[in-house]
Amino acid sequence: MDEVPIIDLASAPGERTSWDRPAWMVYLWGVVELLFVTNPLQVSSRLRVAVLRMFGASIGRQVIFRPRTRVRFPWKLSIGNRCWIGEGVWIHNQDDVAVGDDVVISQDTFITTGSHRHRVDMALVTRAVSIHSGAWVTSRCVILGGASIGRSALIRPLTLVTAAETIEDGAVWGGNPATFLGWRFAGREW
Length: 190
Known about the structure:
Strand content: 25-35%
Strand order of the largest sheet: 2-5-8-13-16-18-19
Helix content: 10-25%
Distance between the termini: 61 Å
CATH topology: UDP N-Acetylglucosamine Acyltransferase, domain 1
Number of helices: 2
Radius of gyration: 18 Å
Number of domains: 1
CATH class: Mainly Beta
CATH architecture: 3 Solenoid
């Protein structure tokens, strides 16, 4: 009987390939993020937004960033106007994350754009995430690379959204696996 293979992780390709910046900047961002963004004692949303912008994030007007948020690479983050980013949201963006206007991303949601080729060599694979204007990603959701959440869609708590789902405009989705539950606005007059 053949043994099940083991992938040698020391040989896995992809380390630092998603950085897009010199190592010193990535390390500096790690310290600044800890002090000014993730820090639960730092209460100013304006300061959080200013620091993210200093490191390349594109963030619109009147955006609220609550404490304990994390952003892996601010230079790969775009957020429109009047968005609310809830406490404990983690944006692990090894690829671009684009958020439209008037979007709510509620507490403890995890957005990740990276994974690995799990059957071959564990090489890093990244795919962008898009959350369109008016969408509401409720608490403790997981949004995986390649996902696109439509305009004014609603993602119910504890939902896993993968690239396999197409979240239509105005749709309500929930569960794991995510399934269509109905329409956010009755009548679909839009």
